[in-house]
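Quick start: what a row looks like.
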Amino acid sequence: MCFKKQKFVLIFFIFSFLFLANGFSLAKSEGEQQTFFVEKSFDQAQRDQVQFRLVKISSQAYFYIENDWYLTITDQERGAINQNLAILADSFDKEIYPKLTGFWGPEWTPGIDNDPKITIVFEQLVKGAAGYFNDANEYLKQQAPFSNEKEMVYLSIETLKGTLAKSYLAHEFTHLITFNQKDRLRGAAEDIWLNEARAEYSPFYLGYDSQGQYTNLQQRINDFSQKPFDSLIIWNSEQSDYGVVDMFIQYLSEKYGRDILVQSLQSKKTGADSIDEALIQAGVNESFLQIFNNWAIAVFFNDCSLDNKFCFKNQALANLRIPPNLIVLPSMGKTNLSLNYSLLPWSSNWYKFIGSEGDLKITFNFDPKAQFILKYVLCEIKDGCKVFDLDIGGKNQAELLIKNFNSQYLSLSIIPSVKPRFSNTASLGDAYSFSVLAQTSNEPSQNQDEALIKALLAQIEQLKAQIAKIQAQLLAMGQTNYSCSSFQTNLYFGLQNNQVSCLQEFLKQQGSNIYPQGIVSGYFGSLTLEAVIKFQEKYAIPNTGYVGVLTRTKINELLKIK
């Protein structure tokens, strides 16, 4: 799901030379074999060359499969692979190629090999790698000795056995388009995070993220939930990197239109600068940093009642909510709580304050080497939640004073975001510190204690009424919409429904070494996620925390035994 970028001097020869060098290649036929250079770091056996067999020729592409692997599988397995490959080739010709080139723009065609067809090879890749793109293949061997001199992408052989082959091919093909639109036509090397973000958007644009029970988007929701505080721009090729860029690009395109992505691709600028330029062209009066901060609120609250900026309309993201770092302030006496945090550039985190008495004063001190932006959300006891901007104004210190905090508000949430102030000299790996000093000065009186107890009792009664209402609704439904006897749908972090309750009941029965808390709430939170990972470790299932086909199959097997 990534691309391999080499560094070369960008010297492009005139088209007549390319034609003479490559224009007279012989027609290809299915069954012929060819050796290609591959990237050692992605290859399962750390090879740099592999022999491939041309298995399928479509109107837009050549499809090669690793020859030794293809010849050693059974006839039945080969038949299934050929069938899946035929379906993929048809999808590439009729959907992926025409729609993505129509949206993003064309790849280099007829390209360095003077052949309009794309070369797609299926290789045995390292675990966790679904595919890659190597831009070395877009240069002549005089410039890049390990170039195959072809417009080509690589996919794992394993993708032909699963349901996401079209999504992965769309992703890697987008990298091929990006090379032409950015590197070749505009002489600009795109930032990796934005290159990957556009590639992640392509399966969604094609409608593949709404097909089937397990999609690329659902996988990315899970990846993001594992590490939501990951930096948007620092790329370590981790699953969480894909998760955060996918969640952000979903937000950006939903709120400001997908043309922003295209316009930024067709700009000589790169990364956040290209997005800022596209936003200005579209008449948007918000900066990239402001939009990033709004996104951080959306993944935290995901509530359109706050504002349409602070939620997702996509139903696949309806249950996405990041749990905050909870800070409980003492309810008795004076509070003088000092906390120190740090953020990577273009990352965010979520802090929620509850408790305390009297007025709450919070003093912030920010690292002068970075530009911080901070929104805070106050949730009142009676009137719901509201979002506010803390006026930092380029200073290194700011204060927030909230009168009668606990008697009027349920919670205070702060959501800071940061970018380097000196981006030309700052190291991308640097973290930027900020401190929080929370102070309360009022001693609680007996009357305040009584008022607080009265308010809490009233809230308890409201919650009881809501629980009774929900129970009545479930009873009226006759519990026909779910069953704890088997699991037929995938479950993941952030989901809330009756099947999650069943999952928690099952995990609870597996013992305290799997799910020591044993909480059955119906919400798939961090505790449930940890329990699922422990269960997967016990039965040698990939430790993703995602309850997909493999995990559901094992659970259903154990339920039958019981």
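That is the whole record. The mean pLDDT is 87. The radius of gyration is 27 Å.
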